[in-house]
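Re: your question about ABC transporter permease

S., sorry for the slow reply, the queue was backed up all week. Below is exactly what I fed in.
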Amino acid sequence: MSIVEPIERTGRGKSRAPARLTAVAGFLVTVITTFLGLLAVTFFIGRVIPVDPVLAIVGDRAPAHLVERTREELGLNRPLIEQFAIYVKNAATGEFGRSVMTSNPVMTDIRRFFPATIELASLGTLIGALLGVPLGVLAAVRRGSIIDQIVRVIGLVGYSVPIFWLGLIALLIFYARLGWTAGPGRIDVVYEYTFTPITGLYLLDAAWQRNWGAFRDIFRHIVLPASLLGYFSLAYISRMTRSFMLAELQQEYIVAARAKGLSETRIIWFHALRNAAVPLVTVIALSYAGLLEGSVLTETVFAWPGLGLYITNSLLNADMNAVLGGTIIIGSVFIGINLLSDLIYRTLDPRTRSQ
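Result:
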């Protein structure tokens, strides 16, 4: 071994260190900038809407001195830039004020309602991924066939039909007519106090405590809204899977694999899908984030006590602290999942690490 080789390796290590630091610094700048942009949007939306947060707290008939004192306590009499600085500081510490509707700190309400949304969106994404990926692969392999047309129609309907209409039809058929599922809500009163919520994920909590009666009731409540969200997730995932697989099946390594005599099943499921799985991670992650923020109508139709229903009821009651706090939390989760999926993509695909 020559002396030159260790020196070259040391030089490469030193040259990679600044590049990694630059990448980490760029990542942090992206996170901070995106979060500040989210805070700026929510802050100015809260200032331009025709709802006075002071009157929402003290009431329309409150005396003038009480209105002014409350406005001063909330800092709403200060310059706008100073209000924004206070807003950013409070948001960074999780302080969003008190909810007018529940009289609780907004963060307390979010901790109470958000697990229901996470449980619903997680099950919906699981359904969408387990069904959407195989359907997309099948449509790509059978391109132009009747199977491909059916999968594309399923995706088109999933994009086109309003979710609230489909939810009402599903309730009418599977709950009111057939009685296969439970009605609106998350759990019947009979089972509500038979187990102790620990994580807020009722299915997990009931299974952990082996309360199978409550587990079955919770499952009967969640299966319909989760299937509805899963259908919309399926429409997106199957469409993207089909596109990725069509691109992979045209690559030269597929031709080489067929020339070597590998079975079509192995080529499709162990070679083409493996390469298509890298961008699919990002698609599934973004689908999950979309269900977390876009389940408002589903939660409203099914009276699901999640964060979406909480924000909707708060908006109807002019409870802007709760609306803006919930919006910031959902936006932050969306940003986090987006950045995490980008990190996973770069980890799985070595070609993107140098970019």
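The radius of gyration is 25 Å. DSSP finds 15 helices and no strands in the chain.

Happy to talk it through on Thursday.
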